[in-house]
């Protein structure tokens, strides 16, 4: 289980949209919060890193005061967060900080001080989530108006399961979330259509065999989801299940989790076809980029189990590492 929740803040209202969710998770999972702000020195228009040492001292003091004010406001929720100010490139500093303890849950918004854009993720969020290699909650931030600081409440949580053990690594977390929020858990398993995958026509003689294989898979998933559902219901939780055959499991999950249909989507970073070349499998990667709902992804691999990307390898070679 996690040892801490890290929330990067940059002073913008957009970044602060992560706080209501962080409050909920901190209370549901009973783990401490760490608020982080990075004084950037990347040379762009959002840089806060001056050459003048006196000005730098002033910015450091302002950063500490900002984080302390947020921490003070969080005290009404019986939370006493740690505050940390870092210096350097925002993405790099966040990645290094969360990687210093692999049992970190990173909670951040899709956009921050750079503002809302037509891109689904800002550069810092994109870089941090893909390269930190830890579990994360991504909050969609598309309002630059500061909201009230209050705990977000989840009413409906969608949990995709593929019948494998990796996808079930989320179960302890969703149990704690369901108890704290008194919400409904919807367990979803999608059978990929073999006829669609192999472009088999309805009148093809092979359709009988294909239909039999799909039905066999559907029954196997129904048994698996039913087993999990029964256990959760016996513990007093509200659970719904859905198992169906669709052309594209990724598209089906996207449709089921569009804005307004769920308050939170929780899934494992990898499924049965786990490949440690990538920090995220196809389903969570698609949900991260194209989703409309807050997304909680639990990393089932340790950071050192995930292979470096080609770009990371080249960068390290150029730096002489």
What would you say this structure looks like, in words?
The chain has 321 residues and is of the alpha/beta class. It folds into two domains: 4-150, 3-Layer(aba) Sandwich (Rossmann fold), CATH 3.40.50.620; 156-285, HUPs (Rossmann fold), CATH 3.40.50.620. 40% of the residues lie in helices and 19% in strands. A ten-stranded mixed sheet has the order 3-2-1-4-5-10-9-6-7-8, sandwiched between helices. Strand 9 (264-268), helix 10 and strand 10 (295-298) form a beta-alpha-beta unit. The chain is globular, with a radius of gyration of 21 Å. The two termini are 32 Å apart.
- Class from helix and strand fractions: alpha/beta
The biggest beta sheet reads: 10 strands, mixed
Distance between the termini: 32 Å
CATH first level of the largest domain: Alpha Beta
CATH architecture of the largest domain: 3-Layer(aba) Sandwich
Provide the number of structural domains: 2
Stretches where pLDDT is under 50 for at least 5 consecutive residues are: none
Radius of gyration equals: 21 Å
CATH fold description of the largest domain: Rossmann fold
> How do the SSEs run, as a string of H and E?
EHHEHEHEHEEHEHHEHEHEH
Mean pLDDT: 89
General shape: globular
CATH superfamily of the largest domain: HUPs
Helical segment tally? 11
Q: Strand-residue fraction?
A: 15-25%
Summarize the structure.
Helix content is 40%, strand content 19%. The protein has 321 residues and is α/β, with parallel strands linked by helices. Strand 9, helix 10 and strand 10 form a beta-alpha-beta unit.
